[in-house]
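Following up on my earlier thread - several people asked me to post the actual chain instead of describing it. Fair enough. Here it is, all 147 residues.
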Amino acid sequence: MSKIGLECKAYFDAAGVGGGTWALLDEVIDVSKSTTKNMAKKKTRASKWELHRAGQRNQEIEIVYLYEPANAGYMALEAAFLNDTRVGLALMDALIATVGTKGWQGDYEISEMSDPEPLEEFMAVTFKAVPSAATGGQTPTKVTIAA
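Reply from S.P.:
Thanks for posting it. Predicted structure:
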């Protein structure tokens, strides 16, 4: 079934995946997720083709959040950036407690925080997140909520 972004939900867990409770990022404007693979190249004179083989994967999440400095989700993302700590994120296609909901979960580091101040728009902050190498962190995982 087709979905629109309005139906999707983003969550955070300040303690990391499995460390606490998922809380809704309720002031999200937009979310973008890019999952890519590094590619090794094989080039020889014996072939007219450049060949490739998949290597490690990478994921970058961009969350555009309404500037609400007293909001719990905003504070968690900002704290993760300022304190160099990981934060659990879940990007789901429906409510996380609903059986059959699909999405991505993992522990991330906030690598960038930018906050433009447009003249005639509400302020929003863009948080960029990448998979965390912190001890005990969970790599991004595609999940389906089971019964």
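The radius of gyration is 18 Å. That should answer part of your original question.
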